[in-house]
Amino acid sequence: MSRFFSPKHAALDAYVPGEQPRDRKYIKLNTNESPFPPHPAVAEAVAMEAGQLQLYSDPTMKALTEATAATFGVAPEQVLMVNGSDEALNFAFWAFCDESHPIAYPAISYGFYSVFCALHHIPAKEIPLREDFSIDYRDYCGIGCAVVIANPNAPTGLALPLSRIEEIVKSNPDHPVIIDEAYVDFGAESAVSLLPRYPNLIVIGTFSKSRSLAGARLGFAIASPEIIRNLNTIKYSTNPYNVNRMTAAAGIATLAHNDVAMANCRTIAATRERVKTALRALGFTVTDSKANFLFAAHATLGGEELYKQLRSRGILIRHFSTPAIANYNRITVGTDDEMDTLIAAIRDILASQRKED
Ligand code: PMP
């Protein structure tokens, strides 16, 4: 740490992204990317924009905002486009929480929530999950502070039904409730339909997973026009050109073929269900994930051991050292071929473990 680093940030424990190694070719099942490339129209649209990079992007993101609003059936004034949904989360924490305005979220959830709390000096109310990793929605009803819930949750993959999300939003009318829908397209219900009734609701989404644009960095917030204006105040106070020209073009081209992206999500969900069954047959406890990943622990093979063994075989999965979930791994759902390779490798690892015993 340099001696110039503000003491305000000295205790920051920054977010650690999943590894993106370059040393060899891996089957990458560790950062919840899509196994499908973007629609061919994306490359074409991006190439067109590349020739205009001497010009700033449109700070209002008019065309992309309108396309997103049309896709979700809301008004453009209800939409803010951002540089990855992490930015929307950051803006929302920054805009609506501070030292005296805490935020509640599940104790096991997306790691960035606690990082944003530390960054903005926001007291965090971390609510324990049930034994089976499910969220008890009643813990959040009338809680009296801001709430953020990933639905489906990460890394468990478990989703709350829309009726439970509505109870949480309805019972906290004087506090913002952020629903992080990074994984919603793989089998959960979106809260966007609740927006006309609840001005305290903020839905955050991303093009990273279901729309194959993780590398482009594109996300969005959908909320009341008042809330979007507040988020824009933060955006224009930090980075007015937060979405670059090529990413905006990629987003528009992707939405023009949204049906293809949604069909890919159904393929991924079908693969997820197949692999879930296969893993259970191999002795894994696997949550009923509605996301593009599985969350699994084996009865006799430790989580970290499995992670290491797979890594040495060229397969990356995500291991978290958090004690409560140290026996688990999060496994992104890839193509059927990739998942068959994974299952074969796990079979092999389990067989050599039995031989050693
Ligand atoms: N929310 C959750 C729950 C996530 O897992 C992720 C992915 N790391 C994000 C938000 C952020 O995704 P992105 O910034 O790529 O849109």
In whole angstroms, the N-to-C terminal distance is 47 Å
Arithmetic mean of pLDDT: 97
Q: How is the main sheet built?
A: 7 strands, mixed
The strand count comes to 12
Task: Please give the order of strands in the largest beta sheet.
Answer: 2-8-7-6-5-3-4
CATH level 1 class label of the largest domain:
Alpha Beta
Any idea what the CATH superfamily of the largest domain is called?
Type I PLP-dependent aspartate aminotransferase-like (Major domain)
Could you say what the CATH architecture of the largest domain is? Answer: 3-Layer(aba) Sandwich
Low-pLDDT runs: none
Write up this protein.
By secondary structure, this protein is of the alpha/beta class. It folds into two domains: 7-36 and 259-351, Aspartate Aminotransferase, domain 1, CATH 3.90.1150; 40-257, Type I PLP-dependent aspartate aminotransferase-like (Major domain) (Aspartate Aminotransferase, domain 2), CATH 3.40.640. The chain is built from ten helices and twelve strands. It has helices at residues 40-50, 62-72, 85-96, 112-120, 162-170, 225-236, 245-256, 258-281, 303-312, 336-356, and strands spanning 27-29, 79-82, 103-106, 124-127, 146-150, 177-180, 201-206, 219-222, 284-286, 293-298, 315-319, 328-332. The strands form two sheets. Strands 2-8-7-6-5-3-4 form a seven-stranded mixed beta sheet, with helices on both faces. Strands 1-11-12-10-9 form a five-stranded mixed beta sheet, with helices on one face. α3 crosses α6 and α8 (258-281) packs parallel to α10. The mean pLDDT is 97. Bound molecules: 4'-deoxy-4'-aminopyridoxal-5'-phosphate. Residues 84-86, 110, 150, 154, 180, 182, 206, 208, 214, 219 line the site of 4'-deoxy-4'-aminopyridoxal-5'-phosphate.
